[in-house]
């Protein structure tokens, strides 16, 4: 099993390959490990796969059952959360893409090079993370290879400490940068929506548009789409109009860790705690990235911007409801305002790789 990215992945074991490596076998399938394959939210994945056939495919003059059986059958599939899903199947000049991957998956070079089974997957979603198998059957022979892919990157909603809808476009862009992120693109928000993300708050995106993703349409969240699910779009707006913002974070060069004490911490005590552990207060973006990599704590903690949040991977009723995500503790019931600095909470610290 080959890992094409170094990101940790808490996933089930690799597919069990049907053939152990054996030089006596005539059919070989290989997923090369170089160059490294980038897999980021909203981007594209090119996953190479090469096959050495047991015997040449039939010539155009061959017909009948022998010709069909001699044609190699190609299958790409992915194992995510213990379930195998077919992506596409190809035989001869016919390629059938599964409904769930329509308009996203293709065999990049297969039409003119049948030994090149490179998979192209566009509009990557967080649930595209998994173990990818390239499998070929020819006659009685069967071979495959497997690679592990982790889709990096997370889109999240961010609000000013003072109130809802307080950012001009420029302030929105700066707010994302101040917490260690970038303002999200429309493509990233759309990919997050297709990954299951929902937020009924309009926010700036990098193209000067204002949008928000809705899975379950309801009163107050219809936007421009009435009762249909989808990403609501207010269009390109004047940069001095006021909204929240959607930010995007991909990589953090270090680790986020949870800190606690019997009496918990004020904001300033939390900052001192992190410093005493060779770290600093984590930013909101760093906490979201750590959550996306599996950090799970049902303990609200201080962050560098004065907000109090906690990451939930495994939802529990006492931890804020039935959906995974990063929860935020607001001062007011209308979900605005960060807690006062002298209130006591746990803390989330960040230690960079340079000091680990």
From TrEMBL:
Gene Ontology cellular component annotations, sorted alphabetically: extracellular space; perineuronal net; synapse
S-S bridge residues: 200-221, 298-319
An example Gene Ontology biological process: cell adhesion
Domain of life: Eukaryota
Domain Link residue range list: 154-249, 255-351
Cross-referenced SUPFAM superfamilies: C-type lectin-like, Immunoglobulin
Keyword field: Disulfide bond, Glycoprotein, Immunoglobulin domain, Proteoglycan, Repeat, Secreted, Signal
This protein's name: Brevican
GO molecular function: hyaluronic acid binding
Subcellular location: Secreted
Domain Ig-like: 32-147
């Amino acid at each position: 099993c080959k890992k094409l990215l170094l990101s940790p992945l808490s996933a089930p074991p690799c597919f069990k390959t049907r053939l152990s490596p054996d030089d006596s076998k005539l059919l070989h399938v290989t997923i090369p490990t170089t160059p490294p394959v980038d897999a980021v939210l909203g981007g594209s994945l090119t996953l190479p796969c090469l096959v050495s056939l047991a015997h040449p495919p039939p010539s155009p003059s061959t017909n009948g059952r022998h010709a069909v059986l001699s044609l190699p059958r190609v299958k790409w599939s992915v194992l995510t959360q213990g379930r195998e899903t077919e992506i596409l199947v190809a035989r001869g000049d016919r390629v059938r893409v599964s409904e769930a991957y329509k308009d996203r998956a293709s065999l990049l070079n297969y039409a003119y090079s049948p030994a090149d089974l490179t998979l192209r997957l566009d509009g990557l979603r967080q649930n595209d993370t998994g173990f990818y198998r390239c499998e070929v059957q020819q006659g009685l022979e069967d071979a495959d290879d497997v690679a592990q892919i982790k889709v990096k990157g997370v889109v999240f909603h961010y609000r000013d400490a003072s109130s809802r809808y307080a950012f001009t476009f420029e302030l929105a862009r700066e707010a994302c940068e101040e917490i260690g992120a970038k303002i999200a693109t429309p493509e990233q928000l759309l990919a997050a929506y297709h990954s299951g993300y929902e937020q009924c708050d309009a926010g700036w995106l990098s193209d000067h548009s204002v949008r928000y993703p809705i899975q379950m349409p309801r009163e107050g969240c219809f936007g421009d789409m009435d009762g249909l699910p989808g990403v609501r779009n207010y269009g390109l707006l004047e940069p001095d109009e006021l909204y929240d913002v959607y930010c995007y974070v991909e990589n953090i060069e270090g680790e986020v860790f949870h800190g606690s004490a019997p009496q918990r911490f004020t904001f300033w005590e939390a900052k001192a705690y992190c410093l005493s552990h060779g770290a600093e207060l984590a930013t909101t973006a760093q906490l979201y990235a750590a959550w996306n990599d599996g950090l799970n704590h049902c303990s609200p903690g201080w962050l560098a911007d004065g907000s109090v949040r906690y990451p939930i991977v495994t939802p529990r009723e006492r931890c804020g409801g039935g959906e995974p995500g990063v929860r935020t503790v607001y001062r007011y019931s209308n979900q605005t305002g960060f807690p006062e600095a002298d209130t006591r909470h746990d803390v989330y610290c960040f230690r960079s790789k340079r000091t680990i």
